Amino acid sequence: MENSTLLVNLTFALGVAFLGAVLAVKLRQSAMIGYILAGVVIGPNTPGFVGDALTVDALANIGVILLLFSIGAQLSVSEMLHTGRVAAVGACVQVGATIGIAFVVGQLLGWSNLEALFFGAVVSNSSTAVLSKILEDRGESGSLHGMISIAWLTVQDLSTIVLVLVLTTLSRGSGNLGVDLAKSIGKDLLFLLLAIPFGLYVLPRILLMISDLKSRELMIVTTAAFALGTAYASTLFGLSLAIGAFVAGVVVSESDFSQQIADEIVPLRDIFAGLFFVSIGMLIDPVFVVKHLPVVFVVLVMIVLVKGLLSAGMVAAFRFPPRVALLTGVALAQSAEFSFLLARLGLDLDAISRPVYDTLLAGAVASVLISPLLHSVSSPFASTLDRWFPNASTEPDEIPAAVLAELRGHAVICGYGRVGQVVGDALRRRGFPIFVIESNPRLVRRLKKEGILVVLGSADNKVLLEMAGLERARVLVVAVPDATIARAVVEYARANVPRLDIVVRTHSVDERDRLEDAGANEAIIGEIELALEMTRHTMHRFGVSTLETQAIIRGSRERAQRKP
Q1: What is the CATH number of the domain that holds 210?
Q2: Does one domain contain both 235 and 377?
Q3: Does 321 share its domain with 349?
Q4: What is the DSSP annotation of 271-340?
Q5: Domain interval for residue 240
Q6: pLDDT tens string 36-48
Q7: Where is 506: in which H helix or E strand?
Q8: What predicted TM-score, i.e. pTM, was given to this entire model?
Q9: What is the rounded distance in angstroms from the CA atom of residue 66 to the CA atom of residue 272?
Q10: Bridge partners for 506 per DSSP
Q11: Same domain, 410 and 352
Q12: Whole-angstrom distance, CA of residue 257 vs CA of residue 210
């Protein structure tokens, strides 16, 4: 009968999770929201079928392990280092300040000290999964604010290890915090001393042998066994399953097999992670949430407004343009998978009450729901900010007026990231003059040392575009990944210099059409050109002549660029 009960609960949980996820995706929301709402449907606080909480929880624990192992394995230290100190310092300050403010607010709401601390921990984190989807949908994955936000989230994820350690110690402690923390840290270090060598030296050798066997099934089983085994081993040291799994993922993230490991675990992770979010939803009482909407609104304000402003303020403090600061703040103004984990941890440790748990979850879910809308509303206003408050670090006087006056027949490059740098390097090797507008202060400093004419600020800042001498330029290269900025640059340039040649990068056929309508001579769709280059290479391997290959590519380009 137990097997029958397990099967019934698993079937209903996955079935309702599927329906919830479909609805959420149709509404352009994260599937995570659909899973949580599905949990509410089969929970004890709503009519109809009621899932067995213990059974679903047991399955959900597997989801927690695989989810956090996957997050740890995909952490990118290089992305964090690429953005400089802004992510490392900014995220640490933001997390600490958010917890401090939330602690005070929690006490004003009448919550206990532990509940107020868990409140701060829950609202301090943001979701990598939610943000990555929004950035991808908007074509902003390679934007400066996108890279800063992703690096920021890496630091937030790492901070969760500390939060879980401290909060668990406080909840279970004997009253002597110093001694309890020392014991916990000692156990953590011992666990790391065993886990790190195994993850860095033993596991890669095992995976190499598995890889030689060319069996995908064995690779999946090995990866899952390592994730679950490490999580279980962490409990022997008094740590939680979640922390053990996350540490295991972080360890393998530095391995040559990290990407393969992350890819192989995805199918299992998605199934059981769905059950984890279903189990969270089962504990929510919708009636309570409706009755306590003002308190839920306070939680939402903490997540969106307070955390968003703290994040934006830290980015601005590092002298990034106002636009980048605002969009980074908006990107981080939502809750994370770790937020739900921390709330559940508090409930399991009896550190927070069910009413507080319901309130925190309702506010966190609401923040995820409104995140896409906030991005859409903030983008136009962000560009306006740069026009209202030209960045002081632009320093136009650093480039002598005589040098600007003599600048002729040059290329103006807006955005010197991966795309702009390739164009700029090619021009410089041929000795052609370039003028760069870039919003990353760290990159601007490097370009100045290399003797490149560069100014700091957003590419759609009219002051900077005037300084670039568009009327004397040979070509304008718009290489910024942000579609809104790109369109503004093209419109300004075409209105003021009608004969200027303009080439711009884009991500879709619809956006290409809008840019060409705005005046671009050519709008390059990156994904199409990538596919065509791969086609050229493939045709060459099949022995197709160069002339025939060029004709094939020309026809493919014309068909690919048509509207579907």
Answers
A1: 1.20.1530.20
A2: yes
A3: yes
A4: HHHHHHHHHHHHT--HHHHHHTHHHHHHHHHIIIIIHHHHHHHHHHHTT--HHHHHHHHHHTSS--HHHH
A5: 58-387
A6: 888 888 888 787 7
A7: strand 501-506
A8: 0.70
A9: 8
A10: 525
A11: no
A12: 11
